[in-house]
Every structure is written in C-alpha cells, then in structure tokens.
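seq:
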Amino acid sequence: MAPLKNVIVIGASGNIGKPAVDALLKAGFNVTVLSRKSSSAKFPSEVKVQTIDDDYPSDQLVAIFKGQDAVLNLLPPDSVEKHNSIADAAADAGVKRLIPSEFGGDTSNPKIVEMIPMFGTKAAITNYLKTKESSGLSWTAVINGSFFDWGLHNGFLGFDLKTHTATIFDNGEAVLNGTTLSDIAQSIVAILSKPEETANKFVFIQNIKATQNQILAALEKSTGKEWTIKKRSAAEARQTGGEKLGKGDMSGIPDLIGGALYSGEPATDYATTRGLTNDLVGVKEIPLQQLIDQVVKG
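struct:
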C-alpha cells in the first residue's frame, strides 16, 4: 500500500483532535481540517481548513475528500447514519484509510456493549466500515481504555486532584486500562505510517493497567497528602447512570461508564482478553508512579 501522507481530520478541536493534529504535523503529514461553517474553532497555521455545512452533506464530503489518503473521524459517535455517510463519501472519493471515532473500551467485545449500551453506536459504525473494504477503503480502530491523563485532570476516573478526594468503587481492586492523549496521538501517526500492517483491524494500546487502590497510593505519594475516600457500588453506579440516560439525562454517562470501568468484569481488561499491539504503534507501558507524577506535577 502506498504511503498515506494527506490526512483530513474531522473533529480536530476536541480532546484527541488537538494532540493528533500536532503529532501529524510534527511527523510531516499534510494535514487538512474539516470544520463546520458555524464553528469558531482555531487551528494551527500549518493546516489547511476546509469548511462544510453543519449537516455534513454527502456531495460536499466527497468533493472535500478527493485527494486525501486518510480520514481521521473524531466526531462524537452519536449518529450511526452520519458516520456511515462519512464512510460512504470516503469510499466514493478514493480515500484509502478511515480511522473511526472509537478510542475507548473494547467495543469488539459484545459484553462491553451490553454493559455500556451507548457503545453499540461505535460498534455499528466500525462494523459498517468492514463492509467498505471491498471498495478499497480500509480502516483501523484504536482501543485505548481511558484517557488517563485527561481523566485524572477532570475527575472522570473518580479522583479529584483539587480536593484530594477519591471515589473508590467496591473494594478498589478492579483493573483500569489507560492511555495518555499524547500516546493516542502517537498511535494515529503510526497507523498512517504503517498502512499495510494496520489495515482492517483493531489496535489495542495502553500506558498503564492498575487498580484504583494502586492509583490512589501513587496519588497520595505524588501529592504528599492523605486523600479522603468515598465508597460507591459499581453496580449501583451503572444502574443510576442507565436510569438517567433512559430519561435523556446525559449526566448519567459518568455513572454508567465509571460503574462499568470499575466493575471487575474481565471483558473490561482488553490487555488480557485481546492482547496489546503497543509495539506495532510505538506506545510503551509506563510505570504507574512515573505517570502519576507526570500528570500531577507536569
């Protein structure tokens, strides 16, 4: 497969988009950003910006995608139809690779989708991509667990760096897999740099695998403080989150995902159930204390 040098990024102003664009530029890729006409987002001067109507019409997508080798789709996976339309346009335009908006838990495992039903949208999007392989459009999906540094900074993983408070689910011994945003970006660069080796497959990466108790101990050492501990049931969190989402209340997302992450269900530990492809994409595991110090003091 010929090198993939021309890359268009959709959703470039988000949590993954910003480090991904920076990493792609640093690696010498020709980067274009697709931006909605209503968006006020700003991008690095080195990228080319293409604007599109807010509903991403197919004819505009095809025209914009022509000449691109790869599409990095980082839009929220809230609409199967929208993402499938992007895949169709990429195939029609002759794009060679599409990286879908996976970046999280192992949606190739039905148990994960059962536990976090909203992940069914991600699974459906990737499954649709498989049907486009015969058209010449290949795909790579990245499974990275939690956004570890991001999740610590904003409390999503149950640790509040400002108040030194930890919410520990059950006995605190459930395993959490996590990857930093910078290494997720590195995996994207590697995927596009190794198109043959990464075609039509899931890539499983992580920097750390640790329990909540281990993370808490590392945080206490790094901050030099004894943390306040709140206890919670993972099953109760999942139930509460599911009930909120069933009523259209999006505030249930942290409960549902947190309850699943810390449930102790073996399926959540993709490093064990699937194995890692860190070496393929240049991601390394990092000692927990080193990574915690990096997040707390960096």
